[in-house]
Structure formats: structure tokens, C-alpha cells
Task: structure prediction
Amino acid sequence: MRLIFLGAPGVGKGTQADLIAAKFGRPKISTGDILREAVRNKTPMGVQAKACMDQGKLVPDSVVVGIVRDKLAEPVCARGFLLDGFPRTVPQAEELTAMLKTRGLQLDRVINVSVPREDIVRRLTGRRSCPKCQAVFHVEFTPPKRAGFCDRCGDELMQRSDDTRETVENRLAVYEEQTAPLIAYYRQRGILSDVDGTGTVEQVQQRVAELLSANGLA
Ligand code: AMP
Result:
């Protein structure tokens, strides 16, 4: 199972990828999560990436390609993986194809999740996450039991610095310009499936499960 979850920021692709990863016991590789951890740990990569991330811009292709290359080399990825937030540009997609090809592998499916723009802005600006265990909540749609604190580990929830209104607008513009072309790119290669990302997490998960099974992947 080698899958990509594609879509604009805030469509819920990370949440869906987490559920599929847990269900099938495959690792999820989220370049955004790895970069945020590097920022928290103030590693040289984190320091370099922070400025781009805070403005809603993409970090350089070479940085994220390096992250994915290292991850894919880990034994845990041998039986498959789910990519969340990578690739985000056509050059990244080409690097990924080349990386897989050297191992005699190819992608099975690209799951393109979409949600109307106004819903995305609402979803992202209300999103709160736990810096310790990465659990994600929403002030309106999936509030934690105790406001401001993680249900899972009790840590104080935070708003991602790039989930503010202005940065969300930048991220959506960057998505349209640099990432949306990947939809046609993968469609042309015959491996893209569209999923309606509206509705509850469970409803969307059901749609994803159906498309995986329709493609012989579950
Ligand atoms: P995400 O959590 O996927 O929304 O990513 C958060 C931020 O990390 C993005 O806005 C980018 O600044 C950076 N980032 C994550 N993945 C990539 C990628 N594949 N290419 C470039 N930048 C990325």
C-alpha cells in the first residue's frame, strides 16, 4: 500500500491518513509534522524551515525531498506507507517517482480530498492541536472535553502558528499555484481518485475505504 493523500490545507487529509495508517498498520509520513518537530527542536533544518512555514510558503523542495528519502529508507516503510502533505510540487512528485523506481516500486493511488474553500478557512482557523501527542481538535466541530486541553494526554492545546487567518489565505494561494497542478499530473497517470471531504470524519473515512477496496487495496 503506497498512497498519497493530496489536497489543500485543511481538507482533513492528515486525519484520514492517520485512520488508514492505523487500520492497515502502515506508517504515515507527514512532512509538515516532521518539519514542525524540527522547528520545535531548533535543528538547522527547523531553523531554515520556520520562516517559510510561518508565512505559509513552501520550504525548498530539496529539504522535503531529503526528509522523504530518509523516511522511505526505514525498514518500517518496506510494506508500504501513506504520504500526507508530500509531494506538493511537480518537481517533488518527480523526485518521488525516481526514488521509488530505484527500489522497483511505484505508487498505488493518489487520494485527492476536496472541500469548499469557505469550509477550509473555518476548519483551519478553529483547529487546535496538542504539541505533545499531536491530537487534533476543533473549537467548534470536535471540541476537547475540557476547553483548551488535550483529551488524550492533558497537555495544553495550541493553535498552529500558520493557522491564523492571514497565513491560511497564503497557504491556500500557494496550494492553488504550486500543488493543485498535481491533480492533473496524477490523473493523467491514471492513479488519482477524488474523494469528497465534506461531512464527518467517519463519512469521509467510509468513502476512502470504499475507494481503496474498489482499487484492490483493502
Ligand atoms: P502541513 O502540515 O502539511 O500543512 O505543512 C505545514 C507547512 O510545512 C507548509 O505550509 C509548508 O511550509 C511546509 N511543508 C510541509 N510539507 C511540505 C512540502 N511537501 N513541500 C514544501 N513545504 C512543505
